[in-house]
Design goal:
The structure holds two protein chains of two kinds. By secondary structure, chain A is an all-beta fold. Chain A has no helices and twelve strands. In chain B, the strands form two sheets. In chain B, strands 2, 4, 5, 6, 9, 10 and 11 form a seven-stranded mixed sheet that branches. Classes of the chains: A mainly beta, B mainly beta.
Chain lengths: 114, 114
């Protein structure tokens, strides 16, 4: 089955600094990759996706992600973090071998300190 | 104007009881899902429905039964509740089953079994 991994449980950054939340993938064929954010007591919100084309994908709230085929990575980035970006972030992949099931990583908790 | 709404938000019940969670989406999407999020925030797909046909059943106990009266609704009925069923259950929808379609989530139902 296709899968994603998020190697960091927790990421801490200072407000105004750039942030990176890491994700690596394992797929056969072309990957369909997504990032979602979850705020406390809320459902997941879609941020961005990579299907094909440019390796740098821009999404909601100033986030972007860089697809790197050689490193099988899809890291989420933002040039300048806000305290309000503090949340749980999930990387996900469509498992094209299993009915396009959306499979999620374990999540990374981002804390942005003032 | 909630896109995916589920009720109730909280559900506290005793072992052995039967309960239902309702979900409705007003996005005109063809596909709906149920996900379970455990205490460690790990997300696991339970079911998906595409045009009222069950597509995925990820080894979920048969005490759990999805019911879809129409394309906009996917309810989850749980029989003989067990302590291990305590979790947050999320309903989601996507435009269709294509790999490029992101998921749109409801805000979850926190189920506590005592």
């Amino acid at each position: 089955a296709q899968s994603v991994a998020q190697p960091e449980d927790q990421v801490n950054v200072a407000e105004g600094n750039p942030l990176t939340v890491k994700c690596t993938y394992s797929v056969s064929g072309n990957p369909y990759l997504f990032w979602y954010v979850q705020y406390p007591n809320r459902g997941l919100q879609f941020l961005l996706k990579y299907i094909t084309g440019d390796n740098l994908v821009k999404g909601s709230y100033g986030f972007e992600a860089e697809f790197n085929k050689s490193q099988t990575s899809f890291h989420l980035k933002k040039p300048s973090a806000l305290v309000s970006d503090s949340a749980l972030y999930f990387c996900a992949v469509r498992d094209v071998n299993n009915n396009n099931d959306m499979r999620f990583g374990a999540g990374t908790r981002l804390t942005v300190k003032p | 104007d909630t896109a995916v709404s589920q009720t109730p938000k909280y559900l506290v019940t005793q072992m052995g009881n039967d309960k239902s969670i309702k979900c409705e989406q007003n996005l005109g999407h063809d596909t709906m899902y149920w996900y379970k999020q455990d205490s460690k925030k790990f997300l696991k797909i339970m079911f998906s429905y595409n045009n009222k046909e069950l597509i995925i059943n990820e080894t979920v106990p048969n005490r759990f039964s999805p019911k879809s009266p129409d394309k906009a609704h996917l309810n989850l009925h749980i029989n003989s509740l067990e302590l291990g069923d305590s979790a947050v259950y999320f309903c989601a929808s996507s435009q269709d089953l294509r790999a490029a379609s992101p998921l749109h989530f409801g805000n979850g139902t926190r189920l506590t079994v005592t």
